[in-house]
Amino acid sequence: MIDGNNFPGRRGLISRRTFLQLSAGAGLLAALGPTALRAAPDTLNVREIPASGQRIPVIGLGTARTFNVDPDNAAAMRPLEQVLQNFYDGGGRLVDSSPMYGRAETVVGRLAERLDIADDLFMATKVWTSGREAGVEEMATSRERMGGGHLDLIQVHNLVDLQTQLDTLKAWRDEGRVRYIGVTHYTVSGHDRLTQIVEREPIDFVQFNYNILTRDAEKRLLPAAADNGVATLINEPFERGSLFGRVKGESLPEWTKELGIESWAQLFLKFIVSHPAVTCAIPATSDPEHATDNIGAAHGPLPDADQRERMASLVSSL
Questions:
Q1: Whole-model pTM above 0.90?
Q2: What is the pLDDT along the chain (318 residues), one digit of tens a residue?
């Protein structure tokens, strides 16, 4: 987690280290961290955060339901450590959590420290409470749980006490206590309200559900984010796993090979991140092999508009 006063963009100064990296032509390394070369950055798809121009890989890591384990239980932590390692080695950087996810923030913080990658990760979490003081306390606790450094992104989770928490977050952003701020929801019923917020509030990120079968966000929310310079994080990319049930026993068509797609998970993810208004999708997993598979979707060619519709028609027909 980079110091909030040193990130490139409209709210802070660029660090000396970042300046030197950019000056040397290593813009992608500056965005991803000093060890990003192991992830073959020439094949890694990244998107800009409109508020700053910072680039992040198009696949992140969600932690809902999967990282809520006892952080003192070595057996429970071991596979999650490998999940985070595989994600990182594949080029992944953005990790999204929340106080709502039980002990997930603490698990992320401890594993990132253990793997010595905390400074390279883009740490995102949320505030999920009512009242100004309660919000301030919760966000301070989240910061400590996730490692104690500056958080990159804090979002108002499911729009709880929206205006109160947004007012605090705006002040924190101005003070350099957080780099970016945003809002989240996880159902289609929340899209209209999210669209209104994107159009009227100076936020940096909006997080919502979108996938190959649930495409409601394409109508207004994704265009609004693009028009207003708001980055997008995509949750529920697999529709809580139901998409895998739909394709169970089905083989991938030969034409998917031209897109470097090696699994149904990669097809679902490449469909999402190929939308020009999508910044990053955040699938969650507790399986190290799935983590490797998911981050693989950040690499190689992305489908064009015609290929996207062919993918959607394929899944719809099954």
A1: no
A2: 433 333 333 233 333 233 223 333 334 434 444 333 333 444 899 999 999 999 999 999 999 999 999 999 999 999 999 999 999 999 999 999 999 999 999 999 999 999 999 999 999 999 989 999 999 999 999 999 998 877 899 999 989 999 999 999 999 999 999 999 999 999 999 999 999 999 999 999 999 999 999 999 999 999 999 999 999 999 999 999 999 999 999 999 999 999 999 999 999 999 999 999 999 999 999 999 999 999 999 999 999 999 999 999 999 999
What's the order of all strands across the beta sheet hosting 205-209?
61-62, 94-96, 122-127, 151-156, 178-184, 205-209, 231-235, 280-281
Contact 118, 142 (CB under 8 A): no
Question: Per CATH, the architecture of 16-317 is what?
Answer: Alpha-Beta Barrel (3.20)
Q: What ranges do the domains of the chain cover? A: 16-317
The three-state secondary structure class of 26 is coil
At 30, the amino acid letter reads: A
Which residues share a beta bridge with 122?
A: 94
Is residue 151 a contact partner of residue 123, using CB atoms and an 8 Å limit? yes
